[in-house]
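Notes from hallway chat w/ T.B., transcribed later so I don't forget. T.B. wanted the structure written out for a chain they're using in a teaching module, and asked if we could keep both sequence and structure tokens in one place. Agreed to drop them here.
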Amino acid sequence: MALKKVKGNFERFFDKTLTDLVRGIRNNKDNEAKYIAQCIEEVKQELRQDNINVKCNAVAKLTYIQMLGYDISWAGFNIIEVMSSSKFTCKRVGYLAASQCFHPDSELIMLTTNMIRKDLNSQTQYDAGVALSGLSCFISSDLSRDLANDIMTLCSSTKPYLRMKAVLMMYKVFLRYPEALRPAFPKLKEKLEDPDPGVQSAAVNVICELARKNPKNYLSLAPIFFKLMTTSTNNWMLIKIIKLFGALTPLEPRLGKKLIEPLTSLIHSTSAMSLLYECINTVIAVLISISSGMPNHTASIQLCVQKLRILIEDSDQNLKYLGLLAMSKILKTHPKSVQAHKDLILACLDDKDESIRLRALDLLFCGKGGGMVSKKNLMEIVRRLLGHMERAEGSAYRDELLFKVIQICSQGSYQYVTNFEWYLTVLVELIQLEAGSKHGSVIAKQLLDVSIRVQAVRPFAVSEMTALLESFPETTQSGSMFEVLYAAAWIVGEFSSDSNEPERSLNVLLKHRSLPGHIQGVYVQNILKLFTRIVTDYLEHKDVHGILRLCNLLLKKLPSFVSSSHIEVQERASSAFVLIEMLRDQLNLVSDSQSTDVILSQLPTIDSSEIAIGAIEIVQEMALLFAGDLNPVAPKAQKKVQIPEGLSLDEWINTPPAESSESSEDEQTDLFVSHEQMEHSDRKTKSVELTPEEIMKLREVRKIEQSHNPNYLKSTTKPNQIVKDGCEDIPIAELALEVPLKITSTKRSDKYLQDDQLGSKKKTKKTKKTKKSKHKLGISSESDGEEPVAIHAVSTFIEMPEGASLSDNDDKDKHDVNDPHRALDIDLDLPLRTDEILPKQSYKKFNEIAPQLAGNNVTKKTEVITTAKSSNRDKKEKKRDKDRDGKKKSKHSIGDNEPDLIGTPVKHQKEKHKKEKKDKKGKEKKLKDSKTGYEEAIGISTPSKEVY
């Protein structure tokens, strides 16, 4: 036996330690997987040995391997064996491996119930501590139910280390087993007044996390938390308490009035920025909830804004970000207090940190409150944002700037836009500035919405969209920006009656370009609208020559759309082609077989006063087809459509098709090939040869893109060529980056801003005269300046189905079904019921489940562990029974878990025990009937060192 032991120790001398494993992995970076596979084979050999130290070393190496991403779930039984070791060093390694390898759904966790209970009831605090730390990572609902009593027992331990860990562990127990919250809440409430600050902070942390989702259940604890807030000096605990008060204040507005004074004093006195930030957040929440009952709160808001300005001006980027974040919360309720610091926030748009720039953008637009925007400063703010877009780097930030400009202008049904010609000009400039943006559909919706809802601006919109169709670049990187062509073509065709040059718009749409299918379809549809409007004008003037010229032009250009690969474009173009051909035939000029040259040669001989009746009828029918205005449809109109009686959407309208064979299905699937796949296959089969002019155009476009790309390195010299231009002699000067750059280029939208400023100057002169006259008469004006008057009116009419009303009750809050906090929404003030008592300890589960999961070879190991635990349990039960009968009582048996004995002197405790010895029967009856203590209410078994 001794020889075998010596042999085992000698073999251990050559085993690889964790340090050797790490060193070997670093030395084998090229074939790391192969080396780790070799190490895993060695570990498997080590796990087969009987020496627990060898197994502990192997599990430690497996833990490191698992951190690298390799699966070690096959070693679950070995990890449990190391966890059950009597040595603390081995036990710690086992729990570390279990916390990384096991998860709540692991089947092997059920084998650890009794072993973890033994560690929790250990006399050594470090064994119980490591068990609590590991259990928090893989606790399941079954473990929570079986070990809730043991963890609650540790909450009453005499050692603060265990009490703190047990209190924190109860939060994980509540999430997995919500039924334990009500019986455990009285004990958790007691720990808020624990003499140890660590236990007290742990209890505050647990309750604050529970109250984060369900604050109304913890409103009764407000007096205790208020006392802690005014007496504690722990900043981290104060942050948690102040967060909790921020959630409780909307439920009880009277609480907010008491919080204003201590929070304001904390803001004045504290030097901790994290505490200052939470105090400001809570003050904002308090003032929102009590704004109706406490009118004199302007001083508190001004104090918060001044403190936040200090944070924003700080050099620390984190503090600056938090200051902007808190400023956005104040802006929603008190915008005037924040608008005074507009220059500071706009200066943050020049910050080098992109997250700060985005947060400053959020302040410009802040939801329903409107942010810092008003009718007076809208044009100025948009002008500055457009300037930032010109010099901004990074497509993500440029996209965000573009989106914010649209949000700022379109908020509240364009309530801050006074001149819609200016807004349309801004939208066109956004398209020209950012041709590769992903927000092309957003710009397109704005163009359509403004043109439909603002009738006075339609002539200007048609002219702008015609110019946009002419100048839009053919090579655009982003496919979403093509959506603006959809909107432009629709506006030009739908509002052609407001156009002064309809033939110019028609010629622009007839140009063949490689566009997406849905945009080509809109082109064809609006070509027909423009043709109808022009032909109607020619018909009124009896200009047959113009009608014939237009018919021949469209019959020449439409075949390019007819040959499109998109079915919808083909259908629309074919229908338009046939209709125009019928119109030309009705003119009775020449036969269809004659050429266009013959038609043009005969034009002078046509009598313009005589037009066929059939041609007039065709033109009139086409005019009626496109007559009338289209009104905007409500966003919820489709939901409001009522299903007719007798209609079932689940039944087949026609007879369902018969199931076809596999061969026919294969043949049919070939017919439905997307356009992209067809183009891709065509590119593979044949290559298109480009002309030299097209190659030069593509080269120029590529050079322009490279010049605007900040990530592309530009070079002015050719390769293998060295040019000495004297640049080394030029002195290097540092640029003052804090000075904002000036934009020398002027935009068309700036003209409207200059006109607005000139008009405001004239108004100020008039207002000064009126103020003087009012001052003489004793009349005071409320505002220094008047808001500009809107030039164009916005239509707010929207169409809804018959009998439907627009309501906002359709969108309900969708809660996460899997959220564990929903099960913790429990009324804690009601008394405990008998069915809410936590279940007693179960020792049979381990023996029942172990043979099913592990097999015969593992049951031998588990039986040894179970027998030791059962014997230990019997000893504890005998000892507890003796103490309850009063046969053995030590002098040091007074614990800290009984509420009546906390903080009482030792003399009073001795006198109380003397009285209890005189009347044993009365004491036993008192213990049975008492409902004040948590242990008496639910029957938790506690260690023998504590008195109940």
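Follow-up for T.B.: DSSP finds 44 helices and no strands in the chain. Might be a good example for the class.
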